[in-house]
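Practice record 12: protein with manganese (II) ion.
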Amino acid sequence: FRMVSDLQGAMERSEFQLHYQPKLDLQSGEVLGLEALFRWQHESRGNVPPSRVIPVAEESGLIIPLGEWVLEAACAQLARWRSQFNRPALTVAVNVSLRQLSSGALVDTVRHFLASACLPSDALEIEITETCAASDPEQAARILRVLRNMGVRISLDDFGTGYASLSYLRQLPIDTVKLDRSFISNVHKNARDRAIVAATAQIARQFNINVVAEGIEDPRQIAPLLELGIQCGQGFYFSKPLPAEKIPELLD
Ligand code: G
Ligand code: G
Ligand code: NA
Ligand code: MN
């Protein structure tokens, strides 16, 4: 399986797809936004999970064109949903690895695809994922500041499990932290997990940052999260990531 050369042709063969997972208001159940997740349906190997694709794409540099494809597709799709369902505040979140942030081209790419889709900058959220430590954290911080000044929202994915969660919170311009699902799965049963959620919520309040709970699979997790001041969540209990054509039933 020659992943790099197969990846190079995959875009022309239309083997890439995005699935979308909603982010909801835990109190009202309203869908606030959709996270775009990359999928690759290989012509002979079937579905190749992003956990395998992304690291190879990062290593080979193909993460740059792949990331551009994701941004274009996600922005175009959001623009269609906003007008089709009259939901002008709906947002889309795109995962961006620290490697992608070391390319200065990201800012122009984002500006270009927002403009092509006629979307305001605050329609887009960039989720910083940490598959590897940042090679140049200062450069990453600079790029994020430019994006944030444009109005793009920045969130920190899988918060609490990365190499550098707390120092990123200090250094990067963050709107939202997404608390990793490992802290959420037993939040209704485990006082230590609740303590971590509570402490994160407290830091976030002082930084004026939102918190999203990831990986909600059980309705019993919702009450303790609301009690601790977490208003937004995501997870299989609400919806798995779905192909675009299944999203209208969530928005209707
Ligand atoms: O959807 P799944 O659970 O297989 O995703 C696995 C990982 O791949 C997640 O950590 C997710 O952030 C990452 N991922 C999914 N889509 C993208 C993408 O478009 N770009 C980047 N950089 N990472 C992605
Ligand atoms: O790292 P990131 O948070 O971007 O990863 C997103 C992936 O997490 C998605 O591909 C999705 O399949 C997975 N995911 C989303 N919600 C849940 C959940 O409730 N439980 C589990 N086990 N995985 C989830
Ligand atoms: Na994510
Ligand atoms: Mn995550």
